[in-house]
Amino acid sequence: MNFSEQADTLAKNWSEAQKQAWDAWFGMASSAMTGRNQSMPPDPMAWLKQGVDAWTRGSGLGGSTIDKLFSSQTNSVGIMDFLTKAWQSVAPQVEAGKPWKPELEAMLKQWTEQMTGAPGRMGQMGADTGNMFDSLFNAWPSALAPGLAMWRDALMSGHLGAGVMGQVSPLDRLLQMNAEMHPAFAGVGEMPRVGLTREKNAKFLRYADAAADMQRSGAKYQSEITKGLSKAVERTIEKLAAMAEKGEKITSVRELNSLWYRTADATLVDTFNGEEFIAIQNELTLAAMAFKRSQRDVTELFLQALDIPTRTEIDDAYKTIHDLKREVRQLKKAQAAQAARATKPAPRARRKAAVKKTA
Amino acid sequence: MISFPFELKPSDLTKEVADINRKLSEGLQVLKDFKDEDVDIGSTPKEVIYTEDRLQLYRYKPLAHAHPDIKTPMVIVPPLINGYEVADLQPSRSLVRNLLSEGIDVHLINWGYPKPADKYLTVDDYVNGYMDNCIDFVRAKHGVDTVTVLGICQGGTMSTCYAALHPEKVDHLVLTVTPIDFHVGKDPKKPHVGLLFTMGATADVDKMVETFGNVPVDVLNVSFLMAAPFALNLGKYADVVDILHDREALLNFMRMEKWLFGGPNAAGEAYRQFVKWFLQDNALVKGELELGGDKVDLKNVTMPVLNVYAERDHLVPPPCSVALGEHVGTDSYTELAIKTGHIGIYTGGASQKLLAPGVSKWLREGVLN
After folding, report:
1. Residue segments in chain B with a per-residue pLDDT below the cut of 70
2. Are B264 and B119 in contact (CB under 8 A)?
């Protein structure tokens, strides 16, 4: 059998083994929930997760260990799957002693595009923005929903200027926050239209900008990680090709996974040490921090209107408490030092001074 | 001659998958019966002898007669960013137990878990405030002028600062895997070594602390896990199938997990100062560090120093630790290298026979051999 046929056979055998693994795991998961084996549902991962959750009821640490155990096994399956496909794509070239990297690069390019988003997905931006705002706002009190919905619509329409700074209907209604909305916000609606209002509106705008920045930075970060992983796949295949030349063999799934873990870790650590990666990681961290702070700024607007202490106000109190505690600690030390000096025996009088002068 | 590098017959694959599934099935029965309280760490008997804010000072119950040649009690100073239990993870892997078995009177500062109100605690608060109060308490309790201080990692950095500021209160200083010089130790051939310091060198810690207040432990853990992302996030758990049937082995695995992922958040201001002053500015070795208005001059470290480091330490490369030797004022400076990693120095099998006995011999005789 040539390499191509052997690679196809390997892929087929692995596919069979995977199915057996999934069947067994699924059986274990369903017996945890219902006590009876059931047939594979449409979404086996979700079912497996439910089974894991059923097993782990009442045990935080045991539960998280089981969760990580299953994640590692499912990831091992995925790694084996991916690597056998990668090997399939290059096997004929390796056997023939021809360059195999172009074949692998073509496969990895396709995979990278899937991981980091193809241009066609840009058209989803409007829906994605809407989803993003839904997730941003869905944890907020339901009383705020009408106002936030109007913000969402204004921003999604793309007419930010009109939606935020002009006198169009959605903004007017938001600012009025009249009686047909929750009465608690009647006071909010009485904010002046000029000066303070623009300042408050600016906080909403910064929140939206920060969310967009975080998404952009996240995409760049994801892209760097994917490039690193892509290089790791290339290096793993290189090692497999080197093994082929030496007549060495991979004899188990765990051995292949172990090869991948070593190679991927070494490759990713090279990536992590690079100046470009560190700069992108710092950019993402800053974007995430800016997002979190702008979220707080917006939240505090509503809390202030409701006379609920904000984090900024509580931090002020914490600082005062800390400074007072420090002062007390220092005073206690000074007092203890003074007490220690007071109880120290007086130095003995010098002998010379004690001798009486005799004539 | 070139040959296909895979030898995976269908029967081999089936057998391997069945074997893993069998182990998983057995192990799940064991795991689901585990309660969190079964996974006991820091279990060596002790009493709380002093408290201040979140802090508790422990005195451990003796396991052997006090050694007549070790005159003063010991105070262990753990890091702020991990739990103290690394020094007492399980009965068979415990620096605390081993020191007690050498007849040493062991105390340990448990810094506790910072709450939001603790975000303004500074390095000065920890070193000249809490640490000094604990050491004064131990001195008064035992009627001694000085104690032995043993620092763990960042706790060692703080202990070094303390010894430089209060040399009259410290008779011996023992440091373990302690970073002193944060700008050395990178090896291009070993990129994972010192990765944490590389990443921290340009981090905008001001923004992090302004946003978070106390820096969450999960954020800190991500940076630790990046040293070997696949091995530490997946490989470790894939291999645990082999011990799932062994309750004791599994318990030990979970003890380490509990310590690794159950640590405290880092008090914000102290974290900011550590990253900026120690890591980024390297102010300690440059002689530019001030705490509480006093310069931290390493030349004032005039007591005997034992500096223990791990040869395979990727978090605190050995050069970061041994740099101390050229800066201290003492004539009695000794190094002890152990062939292990950063955590292995406390939990590794070989370390159990090397670290505590080495510290004890050095305290008694002033030498290691």
Report:
1. 1-4
2. no
Model pLDDT for residues B8-30, shown as the tens digit of each residue: 777 787 788 788 878 877 777 77
State yes or no: is B153 an active-site residue. Answer: yes
CA-angle at B301, arms to B297 and B307, nearest 5°? 120
Cβ atoms < 10 Å from Cβ of A339 = 10
Between the alpha carbon of residue A287 and those of residues A301, B64, B208, the distances in Å are 21, 56, 11
Question: Which residue from B5, B195, B203 is facing A240, i.e. has the nearest CB?
Answer: B5
- Surface-to-core class of residue B14, CB atoms within 10 Å of its CB (0-12 exposed, 13-18 middle, 19+ buried): middle
Q: Does A55 touch chain B (CB under 8 A)?
A: yes
Confidence tier at A27 by pLDDT (50, 70, 90): low
CB contact under 8 A, B2 and A285: no
Are the beta carbons of A21 and B20 closer than 8 angstroms? Answer: yes
* Arithmetic mean of pLDDT, A238-262: 87
Give the residue from chain B lying closest to A260, CA to CA.
B230
pLDDT tens-digit readout, A108-124: 887 777 776 643 343 34
Q: What is the pLDDT of residues B226-250, one digit of tens each?
A: 888 888 888 888 888 888 888 888 8
Largest CA distance in chain B: 78
Burial of residue A256 (CB within 10 Å: 0-12, 13-18, 19+) is buried
Tell me how far apart the alpha carbons of residues A314 and A322 are, in angstroms, rounded to a whole number.
12
Across the interface, of B118, B204, B238, the residue whose CB is closest to A282 is B204
pLDDT of residue B214: 96
Contact: A273, B235; criterion CB under 8 Å: no
The whole-angstrom separation of Cα A279 and Cα A317 is 36
Go through B32-68 and write b for each residue having 16 or more CB atoms within 10 A of its CB, e for each that does not. bebeeeebebbebebeeebebbbbbbbbbeebeeeee
Dihedral of CA atoms A198, A204, A206, A211 in degrees, nearest 10, equals: -170
Distances in Å between the Cα of A57 and the Cα atoms of A31, A199, B37 are: 15, 48, 15
Q: Report the distance separating Cα B117 and Cα A134, nearest Å.
A: 32
Euclidean distance between CA atoms A304 and A60, whole angstroms: 37
C-beta separation of A28 from B24 below 8 A: yes
pTM score: 0.83
